[in-house]
What does this fold into?
Amino acid sequence: MATATVEHRLWSLPATGSVARSARHAAVGFLRDAGVAPDVVAVAELLTSELVSNAAGHAGAARVAVCAEVDAEGVRIGVRDLAPDAVVACLPPSPERIGGRGLFLVDRLARRWGIDRGDRTKTVWFELPRSA
It folds into this structure.
């Protein structure tokens, strides 16, 4: 992300059954208010949901932190959990597997994505252009 004017928000959400919906709602509202193109907002909504679901379900996090940033060049959303060593897979979809498509979608739809590991946390993030 460029260092020009950056709008950002951070949400800390309990990892309950509705956490993905809460994260999507918060991110979509923020991105719309920041003037991000509707088609980019739709992709960000999907990818945010996937990352939050992974953090809450696979990492066993009690809380999930979602950080969203927008600048002139694009959007960056990160999801942080307290499982720095949790295995992260990016496998192609398989009809035999239930689930397991989240990071595959992130890999296919994001401009860039990655994983930042801290001593006690892991943040999985993605970037999208501001407009398609």
Notes: Helices lie at 19-33, 38-57, 102-109. The chain has a mean pLDDT of 86. The chain has one domain: 7-129. Residues 93 and 101 are 6 Å apart (CA to CA).
